[in-house]
Amino acid sequence: MVARFGRAFVALAVIGCMPAVADAKTKSRQPSLYQSPDSPGAVRGVGVESQDIVSMSDAMMRDLLTVPAIMNAATAPRVIIDSAHFRNESSEIIDKAMITDRIRVLLSRAASGRVRFVGREYADAVQMERDLKDAGQVDVGTTGRTRAMAGADYRLVGRIGTRDAVDTRTGVKERYSTYTFELLDLEYGDLIWSNIYEFKKAAQDNVVYR
To answer: Pfam families annotated for this entry (predicted)?
Structure first.
């Protein structure tokens, strides 16, 4: 009898605690908040963060708008801006396309038709459609056919580099990051424009970037 009462007491005690546990979990959860991508967020480390991507892509876009070969050409030049030749040689895992995509989108909007952007990373999709047209499985569309896909005049290339240092006594980590952007003439091979974005951060780095 005593054992039965004991088990019942334990069961009631567990049931009585359940709402409190649930309340505690509910109270501990923070609702998600929208944050401005151009300002430091609540989680900060030594790696590249949203405000860095916004700042560097804005700066590169504005500087590209001053390149005479791009903006003053009699015929709108064709440019490739993607991450294919933007090399990450740093110690950090970085989604390079987040940077190059933002530069291309901002420049496309600011250039107002003075520059044509070749979507070379989507060449397989273009070729697939051209093959269907050649086979007569679809019509030619509304813009007509061309002998080949568009060739490009210039391509954005560059390199990401980092230099890391750690104070073994304090655990403070320091990182110097450089992002080099250049515009490569795809006929002659010379670089008609270069710029660099650099920053240095120090932190007790326990942030995981993905």
So the answer is: LpoB
* The pair of three-digit structure tokens given for residue 161, joined into one six-digit string: 């580099």
Read off the amino acid at residue 69. Answer: A
Per-residue pLDDT of the chain (210 residues; tens, 9 = 90+): 445 545 554 554 555 545 555 555 555 677 888 888 888 777 778 888 899 999 999 999 999 999 999 999 999 999 999 999 999 999 999 999 999 999 999 999 999 999 999 999 999 999 999 999 999 999 999 998 999 999 999 999 999 999 999 999 988 999 999 999 999 999 999 999 999 999 999 988 667 777
Q: Residue 108: is it exposed, middle or buried by C-beta count within 10 angstroms (0-12/13-18/19+)?
A: middle
The interaxial angle of helices 50-64 and 96-111, nearest 10 deg, is 40
